[in-house]
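yo

u said u wanted the structure for the complex thing, so here. seqs first:
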Amino acid sequence: MRELVIISGKGGTGKTIITGAFASLAKNKVLADCDVDAADLHLILKPKIKEEQEFLSGTEAVINKDLCNECGLCRRLCRFDAISEDFLVNPIACEGCNFCAFACPQKAIAMQKNPKGKYFVSDTKFGHFAHAKLGIAQDNSGKLVSLVKKQANEIGQKLKSDWIIIDGSPGIGCPVIASMSGVNCALIVTEPTMSGLHDADRIIKTARHFNAPIKLIINKYDLNPVMSKKIEAYCKNNDISVLGKLAFDKTVVEAMVEGKTIIEYAPNSETSNKLREIWNKIDNEVI
Ligand code: SF4
Ligand code: SF4
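structre next:
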């Protein structure tokens, strides 16, 4: 079973559209949305949820009012001013350091894990799908990404799938590192702009640091052919294979609005044909 993650230096480069197209094209696969901070692959895949689990993460102090004698020690010790005058812990301010729980003479403070989101296994028109929903303003998304990947991996092992196809997170932070871990190919999607090249350079350095084999696609290359050439030259100098270049195509937007992949919506379009070509290269070249 091979793992492919589609990533980009920033959001909005077309990574989910490309993941959706590969979901249509690949035969025996499991799909995963590891862009848990801004998950949107479900808009195309329209999953029917089969399993749902709570994502518990981080700890915060909780004061048991029945045991507390309001001595005030915890308030004096907390460096984050997280405990109010009436001895309630502010969950946003609490850093979960455990100091108050350790110091409380009444043993009135417990550290508690909290629900930060949910993760799911679903059925879709293209096969099994592992995905998640992170709560608003919650962190630890790297941990949630690892859980989603683990779910996809377990399903893939069980069903003897050929591929796990992952919509990764944008950027170079903890979630993208978690989504890249152990993959057979990190496919970077970039756009022909100066910032596109800069972002691609950062994500390539990150991927190399974690030994992820890299390939690249230039999306909307025709909007700036000069910059596209610069990106191709950069890839040549850095020994990175450019699997293809996609032209700007408004039918891609129409497909998104319809909640379909471009392969479903316009199977004979230039973009669909190009994506078929790119998928075949991935299927043949990635080991
Ligand atoms: S240290 Fe313990 S007993 Fe004292 S106020 Fe805090 S929770 Fe209550
Ligand atoms: S766990 Fe640490 S940060 Fe949270 S209330 Fe206690 S002392 Fe303050």
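Residues 58-115 form a domain with the Alpha-Beta Plaits fold (CATH 3.30.70.20). The chain has a mean pLDDT of 92.
cya
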